[in-house]
Amino acid sequence: MADKLRTQQQLEQLQNKYIGTGHADTTKHEWTSNIQRDSYASYQGHPPLLHYMSIGMGLPTERVRMHCMERMVLPVGVAPAVED
Amino acid sequence: MANTQSSQAFYSLTLEASSAPTAACTCNVIPGLKLQDQQIFEARGQRLYLHRIIENSDRTEVQVSTFLDQDVFGIVRGVSAFRIPGTSTDQLVVSSDSGRIVMLNYDAEKNVFKRIHLETFGKSGIRRTIPGQYLASDPKGRCCMLASVEKNKVVYIVNRNAEGGILISSPHEANQWASLCFAVCALDTGWEHPVFATLEVDYNDAENDPTGETYENREKQLVYYTVDLGLNHVVKSWSDTVDYTANMIFGVPGGADGPSGVLVCCEDRIYYRHDKSGSLCIPIPRRKGAGEDQHRKRCIVAGCLHLARTKHEFFFFLQTDDGDVFKLTMSMAEDDQGRPTADPEALHLKYYDTFPVAKHMLLIRKGYLYIAAENGNNKLYHVTDLADDPTVEPWNNFSSAEYGDLLPAQDYKPLYFKPRGLMYTSLAVDVPSLHPLMRTTVDNPLNEDAPQIYGIQGTGKRSKFKTIRHGLNIQEIVSSPLGNVDCSNLWSIKHRASDQYHSYLLLSSDYADKTIVLGIGDEVETMEESPFLTNRATLEAGLMGDATLVQVHARGVRSILESGTINEWPTPSHRTIVSASANERQLLLGLSSAELAFFFMGDDGVLNQLEEMPEMSGKVTALSVGQTPKGQMQAKFAVVGCDDCTIRVLSIELDSPLEPRSVQALSAVPTSLEVVEQVDPTTGVGVTYVHIGLQSGLYLRAVIDEVTGELGEVRTKFLGAKATRLFPVNASGGAAGEGESSILACSSRPWLGYNHPLSQLYTLAPLVTSPLDAARGFVSEHINGLCAIQGTNLLIFELSSLEGRLATEEIALKYTPRGMCRHPYGTTWWVAQSEGNVLSPRTKATHIANEEAKKLGNGVNGEDAKMEDGDEDGGVKIDEDGEKLTPEELTPDELERHLGLTKATGHWASCISAIDPYEAKAVTATIEFEENEAALCVAAVPFEVRNWEVFVVVGTGQHLQPGNTMVQSKGYVHVFRVTDEGRGLERVHRTEFTSPIYALHPFHGRLALGIGAELFLYDIGMKHLLRKTRGAAVPNQITSLTSQGNRLIASDVSESVTYIVYKGGDANRLIPFADDTVQRWTSSMTMLDYETVAGGDKFGNLWLVRSPEQASKESDEEGIGGYIVNERSYLGGAPYRLELRAHTFTQDIPTSIQRTALVAGGQEVLFWSGLEGTLGIMVPFVSREDVEFFSQLEGLLRSEDPPLAGRDHLMYRGYYVPVKGVVDGDLCERFLRLGFDAKQKIAGEVEREVREVERKVQEMRSRVAF
How far is A3 from chain B (nearest CA, A)? Predict the structure, then answer.
């Protein structure tokens, strides 16, 4: 039992430290949100990629960066209602 | 390369590093300079730069000169500089993708970055929760904060210990689960505890609320994090809700200088916020002008602060996304006695000037504004006025006083201003940059000596068509015809050795057998009376001793003493002089009898002949005595070249005159020799080099051993088809400074050999001009340059800069270029251009007409009309005042170029242009696209049914909305007839398609085009294109096409490339037979050979894939009966899979890739160019030993010289996919910059001499490129 508890604690610690660490009940919404957030963070983090997008969209990079940041709030829409 | 073996390896080299700035800041890193004399610390791609601004005393000549750059082999994301109290120079902090914070110092003695601290705080790579995206440092230099886009923040406290060392604390974390960070800045709190401000959004509740209500009501918080230096921790000390559109924050000076707090820049508003005072708000003024959308809101994209510490005054420059810069000042409330308090009362904005949209804007205390431009050239502006006078352009003053604390939702009357040309600033330096480089092609339509790089670059009105040549630009000062005399050589001579300027210019013509003497004064004029012999051709002329002029001609030597006495030395009978060389004291002649005659000049200015006249092994073709070393009487060695393809080194010292020292055999007859003493930049010691020009156009450089006279360290370079002639010159970049001794080598084009000021390497670069016959230094009162004979002209020129390696010619375009192609048989180019979110000229005209009509309808009382009136009043006022400041006068077109195109969301402006870069050097025809179409690609297609007549075909998309996948837009293919050899275009017809056309390619006299995931072949018809065949090709969207024979390669937007075979005849089928296993978001690709494709993707990778042999064979079986037709699809794709052959990460996004040779007579390489302005090559290794050697060297350098920012090199080059088959040449070239000990160590490991390793590394580049 103690082992199980420790595993549980370790998992929780991991989930706290690394966002996106899944668990047995990870929903599709959580999973896809996570991927999208990772993607949007990556677009901003790589300057050439952000530049590429800004040229394609005809907007200054700051605007595109804001767009990416904004999409990170709720990248795939609101969560579906949970049935109890 | 056609036989790409399975183990083929490549050497990847960067020819021109990325020019797009990612981060920049001002700093003071050079000890001993004034605080005012700030340097610029800039990061571009994977390199760090330190620039200095160099100006002459009256500021007429300004230069931004780079004094240090270093490749850090990591993605640099932020830079910052701060001064730790009590230290003499600034510390530089770099945040990169290494998961580590790097603190650097500049070591002025060695001119290198010195790493002070390297602290790990997280995983490497660019991740959502690893700090590094944002970097802010406390203005008082006590700590710095790194933040990630989500959750994590880390603060490092820095200190100075008693010994002057810099201490760094352990990281203090300030993490907040589920919070997104939009911006970070440091507050100026004076000497109180440092505070960092951030803009944050908490998404935790919004994510867990299925109704979406919380999301609708989400809030953005301005959060203060206080670093408690006493308790040594970081706490969240204050937070408050701000306007949700906030995107940027700036710290307002605090302590004794101001009220502290932050400026929060939002869409359409700027707020002042602080925890200790009320908030202020001012709207961002909008542009007013013909066709402008009155409701479009601006946001701030860049800004900088100027703080005058002594006067406690400050202001901000803030730039909007249109490029307009506003000056923001704050006024303070006054207390009872009328003294200003620290309580801000109002914000004031004043329209300053308009600049290109900046990534970073830096105000330099010397009075310059540096714009690290997002697109196009970086610019340095000279600030002539700070717009302090409120009476100048009073209509451009805006104040928050009338707004009070404006709530975000509150409706208000927007502010308007009219942008104009530059008024308060003037352009000082235009730093040439190549970003964004949309496409390049290496081509040589006019059969010049070396191929040129043609590129389309830039965005909007600042777009350019560029012709890039390797070489140095010259500034022509005088080019005057010499009449029909064919001159072959010239000399510029001083009258006395102590003179500063040249007095005589001798031009000699072998053909006419005469000499022309020109006098150099205020003008260069023919001297009627001169002591020189004019009825013979001159072989050598110069000043010897203190004031003796010496002229050598075929029949003798004439020396003109200062007193006017003329001494003649006639040649021995039946012998003539064939070559001669002189320095200050020594004169060596080669006679037609293969004998040498040697003279030494005494202090009396008289030439004394050595009686001995040794005979050489063959006819003397060239000889040279070295320059007299400084402080000595005589040079040690002379070099004599003979027609038996040898050169001999002779001692010419008086105690051992004309004693042979060594012999060197050559591959051809030497035509020109020069012995020059040059400083070896790595050691700083003078070394005697002999430069050798051969009949075959080769150029060699060898070192003469000081003691033995042996020749060693030979470097060879092929210069051109003509025999090489060499001229020693003093080349200096710009007017500043004394030139270094260099060599000008004239072959089929002129080359300059010099020590590069930045890389400290001996560099050979061609001069971009017509061939020169001869060249010499030329110093007069006004000119410090070179003079040369160019055909029948006398050319006097200066070299503008020795730093750059590329010379560029530009032709302005209208919109962002998207694609280009060349006339297959002609010399014209066509460029498809389109610009998103701007009004097309036609729509703009309609809008203006509508506005006019409305105004007329409303009568004079209309609101718009009123505003116009007010403006006119203002305009009159300034005339009355007779104000000195006036905006630059610009034509409407120049003004549009300066201010940018009129923006309007959802609109597209697009056109196709024909360009003649050779004769007209201009755009020769432009056809605009209407109905909101955007040109995406262009191809020149010779149609077989029209007897191979070339048509220009343009693919477009209509109502495109990039970033919005929901919208399905239509596409068109326009066909244009070519007139006037390509200079003109004529519409033929257009064909509608269901989706935008991204790829066009001429294929067997027809047009191959990609529509979505399908590949089609079309033929030209009378009214539209006619479909011939179709086939499913790729999974998503074809983005480019290429072909060889019947094999077509289609690249997909996200799924790499697919090989397709076309079965002609009755079958008429397109059969995809091989595709890839890895998703590559292909941005460009080319066929390296029939089996291999090289490409680049949007994440910055370069890769080579090859089709399996069986698949390749099967696909080429005759007809439709073959096996490939019935092959089953494998795992939902094509029957066969491609194999990966090489892979590396370049950071930049490759937008073009091509197999080509870059230098005359060079091997073919894989040339690629990237969006951020990178030009790179991949050189295939020829021998196995080379691969082993360079891999070993690379490995050693990895451990000996680990990347500066702490990123593991191997991990970096294998960012997405492990490196395969590629040796990083940029890392290998770091060897040249290492210290002596490290070089020795590595050379020992590879069991070679240091010199040999250096030569191998340099040759790898010089053999194939520049």
Answer: 28
